[in-house]
Amino acid sequence: MDAVEAGVELLAAMDDDTLSVADAVDRLEAVTTHPEKTRRILDEAESRGIIDRDASELTFTKGGYGGFDPDIVTKDGDFTCRRCGTAISTGYFLDLDTGELGPFGSSCVRKVTGRE
What we know:
The chain is an alpha+beta fold and 116 residues long. The chain has two domains: 3-60; 71-113. 34% of the residues lie in helices and 31% in strands. Pfam families: DUF5830 (PF19148). InterPro entries: DUF5830. This is DUF5830 family protein.
């Protein structure tokens, strides 16, 4: 899975209208913790018209490429949440074009997509 493409898809799927850059980076850590890749994700999302950004805030345009709603796939098994590291028996995966992203616990999948 290409981290930059997955991150751009994740931003496109977020249900927020605005988000602080810090909160966006927190959510993008589900894809990568590498600062350079995070910058590339934000740059690419901006160039595709998914976000507008200033120094402290992202505004989601929901035009162009944005506004897509990924399926959330549920799987039972022994997993570790990709976001918080908690052991979980039900994993939630975002079905992105670049592949499945997860597993997440129920509260973390809502946090990552902005649906809390």
